[in-house]
Amino acid sequence: MTNCDLVVIGGGPGGYTAAFRAADLGRSVTLIEADDRLGGVCLNRGCIPSKTLLSVAEKIESAAAATEMGVAFGAPTLNLDALRAHKDGVVNRLTTGLAGLAKRRRVTVLQGTAKFTGANALQVQTPDGSRMALSFTQAIIATGSAPITLPMLPDDPRIMDSTGALALQDVPARLLIIGGGIIGLEMAQVYHALGSEVVIAEAGPQLVPGADPALLSPLTEALKGKVAVHLTTQVSDVRAEEEGLWVCAGAQDLGRFDRILVAIGRRPRGAEIDPAAAGVTLTERGFIPTGRDKRTSQPHIFAIGDVTEGPMLAHKAVHEAKVAAEAACGEKVEFDPRAIPSVAYTHPEVAWTGLTETRAKAEGIAVKVTSFPWAASGRALSAAVGAGTSRLILDPSTGRILGAGICGANAGELIAVAGLAIEMGATAEDLALTIHAHPTLSETLAFAAESFLGTLTDL
Question: Domain-by-domain residue ranges, the chain?
Fold first, then answer.
């Protein structure tokens, strides 16, 4: 039995942040990760490789769009090996950096799969099959999530999840993506830019569930003629044959595809570490309930990230990680954000934070929605990104900013301004009176605020 002080289970953004923060506060930390390198899904098989490929796709699309500005380029030549090497190089550089940060902080990193065997005990199975027993004083669970699968699909290597899609084994002539959420749309634009004919089958009534439908207009317009989108379409049967994968959605025949990407969401992986053995409870959906200080039903065990309720986002996990680490070290802290941003890194990007118009209607919250079209933005037009919009969700009586949404170039960067405004309790007047540089895309948020105040002169 190896005795440990603080154990962190999972080395993704939440896990390594918790480990590093606790080490900075003087704790002896053991970090357990099943993979051979830190970073979790986000760094190794998610956020970072997908954004690398999206950056390549954006360059291809920008070059094609440049003809409208009087500059013509030749057709792109795709070197798949070089593209994979570039993607892997970005990941390797970041994971190597994490290993260095762990070493500098004297965090002990163990590779293996952990399971609780008691309230203060773990068993870790290492890659060589051996088992080691650990005792601990405190633990932080950060085991993340895994893709949801469809059991009705045949067992066929041409059917892949997001990990397989990012491996970029080939560029299929015809690709079906089941699911029109953020992952599905991002991969749709990557594979379309690389040369695939892409079809999306989304079971729900809109793309990007969670975003306000009105916010998505510039994106849905941009997809026309590039990606075929079928809403309220649930795949019911897939027949695997040598010449391809034949797909039906009820009575609708979607045709033959060379590959299928299943992108219907993710599930928490909390149950995989046998939390019941430690006295940690799970919800019916498999999440670990926590308080605002991220303590579970066992006060000395914390949980963060995708294994807890809330959006499955790396930046949420990172902030929860710091709260858990600091609480474990005796500090009085809470995770109580007013706004958590969500971003689809599509072209154009879609970002929103705080209260949405859809949620306000569902909960009977009175709001005023104002917007500013990027077609009236000098910066957007000069950069040829005029298809966009900036929206604010406001308290009609006080003008307080409750939520915001942006669809357009660099929306993921711009939404931080709105997030800060919400956290600070700022009003439309605060935002409108903040002098923004001109011409910039950021001033479109100020224009939306001026629209609420009745002082807008740019429309």
Answer: 2-147+267-328, 159-264, 342-453
Radius of gyration of the chain (CA): 24
> Per the annotation, does 293 bind a ligand?
no
Q: Could you list the mean pLDDT of each consecutive 10-residue stretch along the chain, which spans 459 residues?
A: 94 98 98 96 94 94 90 92 96 96 97 97 95 97 96 95 95 97 97 97 96 96 95 96 95 96 96 96 96 98 98 97 98 97 97 98 98 97 95 98 98 98 98 97 98 96
Please tell me whether 364 is known to bind a ligand. Answer: no
Cβ atoms of 428 and 399 closer than 8 Å: yes
Q: Are 202 and 190 in contact (CB under 8 A)?
A: no
User: 320 a known binding residue?
Assistant: no
- Phi first, then psi: give them for residue 248, nearest 5 degrees: -125, 145
Return the active site residues.
438
Residue 383 among known ligand-binding residues = no
What is the model's pLDDT at position 446?
Answer: 98
pLDDT at 451: 97
The CATH architecture that domain 159-264 belongs to is 3-Layer(bba) Sandwich (3.50)
At the topology level, CATH places domain 2-147+267-328 in FAD/NAD(P)-binding domain (3.50.50)
* pLDDT score, position 1: 78
